[in-house]
Each structure stands twice: as structure tokens, then as C-alpha cells.
Amino acid sequence: MTRRRAADDRGAAAIILVLLTPVFFALAGLVLDGGRAITARQGAADVAEQAARAGVNALDVSALRASGVDVVDPETARAAACRYVSIADPEDGCAVTVDGARVRVTVTTRTSTVLLGLIGIDSFHAAGSATATPVRGVLTEEGP
């Protein structure tokens, strides 16, 4: 006759594995999709920087010649910046503000998830902003 052990732990590893599997998938999803979120935010910032540069090229030439002050034409700057964003990624959103000679562009994007979709998070939004100002000529200690 065999004696039964006081604490039979057969099958405990299987139960622990079953209970921890969703936790491991959630952590893997956070790592993978978190990296995708960081990449999406950096990509939006990169597009915003280039769009701001495209928008700041819309100088009001008549105001520049009359006063010597850099003034950006707001409508042309908005159109140029958003045109750049739509070419870079047609699904991105574009918001442009013009303050004198400063052009600020905010780009919003939507990125789908890989593993977090298993728990109902199908996508996330990322945004990036950049500001550009016009620069004329090369300045040295001796002047332009």
C-alpha cells in the first residue's frame, strides 16, 4: 500500500502557466506596441518638421521688400504644410498656425496595434509638432 503525500503538487506548474499566459501576452503587447507608439510619435514629429519648413517658405515677398521684415503668408503656408503632410502620409491629420514669421505644424496619426488587439485595443493616436522660422543669408561675425 502506498502512502499518499501530504502535499501533492502535481499539476501546479500547468495551472500557473495557464494563469500567467495572458499576463505574458499583455506584457509582450505593451513592449511591441509601445515601441510602435514611440516610432509613430517620432514619425509624426519628423513629418511635422518637414511640413513646417515647407510652410515657412511661403514668405510674403511684398511685405519683405517693403519693410525688410519676414512675414509668412498664412494661407499659402497652411496649404504648403498640409500638402507636404498629405504627400508624406495621406491618412495623417494636419493643423497649422502662423504667427508672423513662425509656422507651427501639428501632425496626428493613427497606428494599428499588433498584440494589444487581442484585448480590444485596436489602434492608438500619436502626434508630433514642430515650429520653423525663416532665415535669410549666412550670418558671420563680420555681417551678412
List keywords for this structure.
alpha+beta, 3-stranded antiparallel beta sheet, 144 residues, 19% strand, single chain
Question: Care to describe what's here?
Answer:
This protein is of the alpha+beta class. It has one domain. The chain has 3 helices and 3 strands; from the N terminus they run H-H-H-E-E-E. A 3-stranded antiparallel sheet has the order 1-2-3. A hairpin with a 2-residue loop joins strand 1 and strand 2. Helix 1 packs antiparallel against helix 3. The termini are far apart.
Order of helices and strands: HHHEEE
Q: What is the count of structural domains?
A: 1
Distance between the termini: 103 Å
Based on Cα principal axes, name the global outline: elongated
Mean of pLDDT:
85
The residue ranges in which pLDDT falls below 50 over 5 or more consecutive positions are none
The assigned structural class equals alpha+beta
Report the radius of gyration as a whole number of Å. 27 Å
Main sheet overview:
3 strands, antiparallel
By oligomeric state, this entry counts as single chain
Q: Got a strand count?
A: 3
Strand content range:
15-25%
As laid out across the biggest beta sheet, the strand order is 1-2-3
Q: Give the proportion of residues in helices.
A: 40-55%
- Number of helical runs? 3
